[in-house]
Each structure stands twice: as C-alpha cells, then as structure tokens.
Automatic annotation (TrEMBL):
Gene3D superfamilies registered for this protein in UniProt: 3.40.50.2020
Signal peptide: none
GO molecular function, one term: glycosyltransferase activity
UniProtKB keywords: Glycosyltransferase, Transferase
Keyword Glycosyltransferase: yes
UniProt domain Phosphoribosyltransferase: residue ranges: 58-231
Glycosyltransferase keyword on record: yes
Descriptive protein name: Uracil phosphoribosyltransferase
Matches recorded under InterPro entries: PRTase-like, PRTase_dom
Length: 271
C-alpha cells in the first residue's frame, strides 16, 4: 500500500475576471505583469528584450501545460528503491504520450515558439513534439490601415491529428494573423487537433472578438488585456462587460498602451 496523496493533483490558474467567455484566460500574475511592463518600456532593446520574452514565455507555457495537458498515474522508483520497497513515487505526471505542435509565426513568434518547443521536449516524449514555421505579413492599404494577413511561406512537418497545437505570438492585435494561420491548419493540414491554443503576451478586445467569432474553439491565454482607447465609461468595468465599446487599437491597428512593434525590436529590423 503506497501513499496516494498525489493521485489527483489540483491546478488552478490565477485569472483576472472577465466576460469574454470560457475560452479566454487573462492570467493574473504580478511577477509576469512586472516583467511585461519592463518589456514594453521605451528603453528596452536588445539583448534585454529577448531575455524578457524568454522569461515570460517560459512561465506562460508552463501554466498552459499545467492547465491543458493530460496527465497519467505513474509508479516510479526513486534512487531509494535499492534501500527500501517504499522508495517509489506514485502520483500524477504530465502524460508523456501526448502529441504537441508549436507554430512559429515569424517574426515576433520565432523566439516564443522556440521556448515552447524546448519546454515541450523536456515534458513529453520528444518524438511526439514538432515545431512548424509560417512566414506571415500584414497587408495594409494606402492609408497604412491593416486589411488582412498574407502567408508568404510555410514549413509544416506533418499532420496534427490528436495534437495540442500552440500558437505562441506576443501581440494579439487584430486577430488577422492568428485567424489566417488557424484556418490554414484546419483546411490544409491533415487530422483533427485535440486542442488549439493561442499564447499571447498582450491581447486587445478586438482580437478576442474576432477569434471568438471566427474560431470559437481556440483557447486564448494572455498575460495582459490592453483597451486603452476605450471611451471613459469602459474603464473600471469588468473586461467584456461593455465589449462592443472596448477598444485597444489605434487607426493603424497598433495596440494602446501596447509595447510597440515587438518583431522589429526583437530583430533590429525596422521594415
């Protein structure tokens, strides 16, 4: 008879209250919000910006693994098994047999996806982990308004049947890039995924509205909601309570307060 203390390990995500529905998780974490504030500060450039992005995504991916990945019971001998029959750990662990695919939406998503890929390889069987790559750019009109997203190329290494598919992309602005990428996976990549997850540092109400409308099965995990251009009556309300009035994008579809163009700063490439 062994102790079953860890036969059912509870995990509860710390979340900010909102009215966006059950598939949106606004993580409430003072440490990560502090690091994100530094990341968005005007003077933060290389190499600090990449260090902060890696710190933030390391913790965010761990939260998602705890909340979303299946578990299994194990009985694993420890090094004490040579000394006593009780030298055996029995309890839940993350199921190493789950398939996982992380999608790099270049440019800003390259480092976040690599962080996710490395963590997944240490959590589940690496044979079941894959990283895909999508080259995507915003399409703008003559007035520099974002009118859509264009996929310039992709390297997809297989099917997504029964896989947990992660899209780690720092800025959830209009939702156009994510929606385009998810549509491509649903229509052109074989298999039915177990779960589709969006991992963002910052999202806007506009992003959440578009994703909930076009892909209601996508689950969003975000560290911060930015709605800085909303009318005064919105401030102080629970997010989503006045969803149609909430606004986080300026006329050029940049997030306010936001953090500027992460992709440009992370790559020192202002084009």
């Amino acid at each position: 008879m062994r102790d079953t203390l860890y036969a059912n390990v509870p995990f509860q995500l710390s979340e900010m209250p909102h009215r966006y529905g059950p598939n949106v998780h606004l993580v409430g974490n003072p440490f990560l919000l502090s690091q994100l504030a530094k990341l968005c500060s005007k003077g933060t450039v290389q190499p600090e910006i990449n260090r902060l992005v890696a710190v933030l995504y390391t913790d965010l991916v761990k939260m998602v693994i705890n909340a979303e990945f299946p578990r299994k019971m194990v009985a694993m001998p420890t090094r004490m098994i040579d000394h006593t029959p009780q030298g055996m750990y029995q309890g839940e662990v993350i199921d190493p047999a789950v398939r996982a695919v992380t999608v790099n939406i270049a440019r800003a998503g390259t480092l976040p996806s690599q962080v996710a890929y490395d963590l997944l390889n240490t959590t589940v069987d690496p044979v079941l982990v894959r990283q895909d790559h999508i080259i995507m750019s915003r399409m703008i009109d003559a007035k520099e308004h974002v009118v859509g997203s264009n996929i310039g190329g992709a390297k997809i290494g297989g099917d997504i049947d029964d896989a947990i598919v992660l899209f780690p992309d720092p800025m959830g602005a209009t939702g156009g890039s994510l929606s385009t990428a998810v549509t491509m996976y649903k229509e052109k990549v074989p298999g039915t995924p177990r779960r589709i997850l969006s991992l963002n540092l910052i999202v806007t109400p506009e992003f959440l509205r578009r994703i909930s409308r076009e892909h209601p099965d996508v689950v969003v995990y975000a560290l911060r909601l930015d709605r800085g251009l909303s009318p005064p009556e919105v401030f102080g309300t629970v997010p989503g309570e006045l969803w149609e009035k909430e606004r986080g994008l300026d006329d050029r579809q940049y997030i306010v307060p936001g953090g500027g163009g992460f992709g440009e700063i992370m790559n020192n490439a202002y084009v």
